[in-house]
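Handout for the seminar on molecular recognition.
Each group receives one record of this type.
Step one: identify the two inputs.
Step two: read the structure output and locate the region that could contact S-adenosyl-L-homocysteine.
Step three: write two sentences on what you found, then compare them with the reference statements printed after the record.
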Amino acid sequence: MKRVILSVKSSWVPLFLIILFITVTTLFAQNKYFADLRLRMVKTQIEARGIKNENVLQAFLNVERHRFVLPAYISVAYKDSPLPITEGQTISQPYIVAFMTEALELKPTDKVLEIGTGSGYQAAILAEICDSVFTIEIFESLGKKVKLLYAELGYKNIFCKVGDGYKGWTEHAPFDAIIVTCSPTHIPEPLKNQLAEGGRMIIPVGKDPIQYLVLLEKKRGKIREETILPVRFVPMLDEEGKKY
Ligand code: SAH
């Protein structure tokens, strides 16, 4: 009896090894496939359009954008365009994420605030470059989903909360940089107040359908504003769903 069991068990060993081999090579091929797509995205969409900051480029190579999109969009995750996520929201086009990130001139010691977590992709890019990222999302379903994803991906320096980002995150202020990825019609005063001395903020501002990216810098307590380029972002909403 014992001999029969032993022989059955040992006949499973080659099969197990074959399955293990197929699984490992498939995973390896899949990782290589996505890494190649990321490299192409960085070269053709980001570097080719003038983004030079090495830390920003490296972050785009590191973060697996396909993990942040809906399953139906995995095959086009590295495309040169925004993509829909749930709640009628979007994950921004890679180049816009890169442009806004570079404009913040981030340092490795920086603490950053993001308004509009969405898919979580922008915050993951920031987390590769800076010390810590605080991100706020108004839709509970998106906020909860992203928290789980960050735990799965092992991000320990991203802190998420569900709430109205118009008000900022007072407990953790001031921030060395603030990035807003939804568009209000005016620059929220609480965000200006929560910007550290020498800090930078980038925000899309305007009335539908015309919005502009505005870069702000706080120097000796005074804020200097510069309008950079026309953009199209989803609106910033309050807790009742009304546009700011
Ligand atoms: N940074 C995101 C882009 C998401 S789109 C990404 O990388 O995927 C902008 C997000 O802002 C949406 O998810 C929207 O729900 C959210 N949003 C809108 N108004 C908000 C508010 N007042 N506070 C926080 N988030 C808000």
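Reference statements: The radius of gyration is 22 Å. Residues 87, 89-92, 115-116, 118-119, 121-122, 136-139, 142, 164-166, 181-182, 234, 236-237 surround S-adenosyl-L-homocysteine (CB under 6 Å).
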